[in-house]
Design goal:
Length: about 300
């Protein structure tokens, strides 16, 4: 079964650039990239579905094919997920115009034209990925995430390949921190991940309410939870809610990207970071994402 996923502002979309970002870790276990195609397991209603995604025959859409199951499924949630994941329903014209006015960002639009802010339509994935990544390097964060997903996520083998869904809050809420320690989670990090799952299951952290909140209210509600600081909250809100003003000044990757762009002797101070980013405003999330991209091989 095949279907299309529409691309808004197709003149500013590059599937190749999106694949480049999605290929940044060999420890990625939620999707595969091969022959300029992405394959991953998604959910249609309650049905796990393995989907292959490639560039369409024309620039205004992606082409997707369901590899499993064989019977028909509802494609609407799949289209919605792919649209949110790859941010296909946004125009980049205003951001690209803005980059030409900002000395730090100037030239990024030309270098990485068409890159979309790759998101996480699953809030639990977004917030726990932020918790997992706290105070460790990206490579080790991917190692922990891979172990976590393979231990507690739904698993199926399709055409000889292992596919996983990210662990569900109800599954993680039933765990105890000691079950994550053999994976090299710190006890505090394990507790934060489990507590977040329990907050979602209990309704203390209501996703319908979070989806209705403005940026500041949502950020405040998240940092009120133990283990979620300003960086983690902003990361989740950028990746899940797509708040354009999400600012991650504490992010080491962002700091290193700015250091490299400006040929600084050391990473910029917080005061310098605020000065560099003060005019970004509604372009903050995309500015951050493009600066992250500058750290990857060209």
């Amino acid at each position: 079964m095949e279907f299309k996923v529409a691309i808004t502002d197709s003149s500013n979309f590059s599937f190749e650039e999106c694949l480049c970002f999605l290929s940044r870790s060999p420890k990625e276990c939620l999707h595969y990239i091969h022959d300029n195609k992405i394959t991953r397991m998604l959910v249609a209603g309650t049905e796990p579905v393995v989907v292959e995604i490639r560039m369409g025959e024309t620039a205004d859409h992606l082409a997707a094919k369901i590899l499993a199951p064989a019977e028909p499924v509802d494609i609407l949630p799949l289209q919605q997920y792919i649209t949110r994941w790859l941010h296909l329903d946004v125009s980049l014209n205003e951001f690209y115009d803005f980059t030409e006015t900002d000395p730090l960002l100037k030239g990024l639009a030309q270098q990485y034209r068409g890159l979309r802010l790759i998101g996480m339509p699953d809030f639990f994935e977004a917030i726990t990925w932020a918790i997992i990544g706290q105070q460790i390097n990206l490579s080790f964060a991917y190692t922990l995430r891979e172990r976590f997903v393979k231990a507690f996520g739904y698993h199926a083998v399709v055409e000889g390949r292992d596919y996983y869904l990210y662990p569900q809050p109800a599954v993680v809420a039933a765990l105890e921190p000691e079950e994550l320690l053999p994976m090299q989670f710190s006890k505090s990090k394990a507790q934060y991940v489990i507590n977040t799952a329990r907050s979602i299951v209990s309704g203390e952290l209501s996703l319908p309410k979070l989806d209705e909140m403005d940026y500041e209210t949502a950020r405040t509600s998240l940092v009120a939870l133990k283990g979620i600081g300003n960086w983690s909250a902003n990361y989740a809100l950028m990746k899940y809610r797509r708040f354009p003003q999400s600012v991650l000044l504490e992010d080491v990757g962002l700091q290193n990207a700015i250091k490299n762009r400006l040929n600084l002797a050391s990473k910029p101070s917080m005061a310098e970071l605020k000065s560099y980013s003060r005019l970004w405003k509604e372009h903050t999330a995309y500015a951050t994402f493009y600066l992250w991209r500058s750290l990857l091989p060209q």
